[in-house]
Amino acid sequence: MAGAQNDGLSLAERRKRLAAQRAQQGSGSGSAAVSSAAATPEVPVDLLVLNPRNARRSLEGVEGLAETYEGTGLLQPCLVVPIATFKAAFPEHAADLPDVGYVVIGGNRRLAAARKAELKTLPVHVNAKLVTREQILVAAATENIAREELKPFEELETIEDLKATLGTYDAVARKLGKSPGWVSQRRRLANLEPEVREALESRVPGMTIELARSLGKIKDREKQLKAWEAERQLAEDRDSEADGTKKETPKEKSKVPAQKKADTASPSLDDAAKARREACRDAVGAGAGDLARLCLIAAQAPAAPGEAVALAGEWLTEAATGSSALNLSTLAGDEGTERQHQAAIALALAHCELHMSRTSGSDATHAGAYVDWLETHTDYRNTDVELAPTA
Questions:
Q1: Tens digits of per-residue pLDDT, 251-271?
Q2: Phi/psi at 310 (5° precision)
Q3: Tens digit of each residue's pLDDT (9 = 90 or more) over 48-85
Q4: Of 48, 79, 115, 217, which is the most buried if we count CB atoms within 10 A?
Q5: CB–CB of 101/83 below 8 Å?
Q6: Can you tell me the distance from the alpha carbon of 140 to that of 106, in angstroms, rounded to the nearest whole number?
């Protein structure tokens, strides 16, 4: 055992040698190309093909993955089925596929990156249980949806593809382990008018996936377009307010509570407050951090709700998330989870910051906990507030 570990080769060199041995063992055709001796078998990249039924229309982030693979190789195996199995399940694609090899069901982006990194072999998991059209479609959909890799309309296309095979949307929900409401929410995108669909795909300011799903409830074309224009105008007005260039034009009442411009650039703010608020912007933009601890701190920081919403809305706008993430009507169900997490961070920080500014840090226990959170999750460093002792 010791001799095997100390053969004079580096870990990377041993990995390359092992890969070459596996490739040589698997130089045959079809399923025989898999090295059965390996716990996670590898096959030559040339024997792997992208899934022609993959819902993802574009494989993003391939360059970054390729750079990673050049240094470490691919650690997570791709889920594959033999080409013969795939052809039997999808005869309409038979002419487009080679005679031998494997179709990648989960890991198409990994395969594309591996090719760019010029890897010779890849670890795979050959799932012998995936043999029917339904099983392969469900496996591919589950892989993509669980990883949140699909764009909204790709997700919709996946649902429709499964419905064509399974017969009903309820069956689709059961197969994906989702609720009927989850499927219904995503199906609303099919009702979007071309102009609204384009706004969502182009990420026009003011458009969010939650808003698009709400607009999808409106079946009348003119009413849907009018509703979208009203929301787009509101977003434009909020951005103008944040920039200090508010237009003197009448506007409809927003679903989001009226927000006056937060006084983040006021000369009354000292350098310490400006530094804290810059750290808050960074934390909101990152959308990460110990939210539970932050909420406990914020709950003990009295602040006027309107001011806190205004300040949080400004940070969310600057983070390109949009203050609509604070809209209470979007909190039902499972819509907007990531945006709402980011909004919760922004609102909690706003409560803490407003309390800190009003008390000038005299509430030492609260100030200490707030500053400690900022120092833990951002680049902020404080020298003025004495941290309260912690247990």
A1: 444 443 333 333 333 336 777
A2: -65, -45
A3: 998 888 766 666 667 777 777 777 777 678 889 999 99
A4: 48
A5: yes
A6: 6
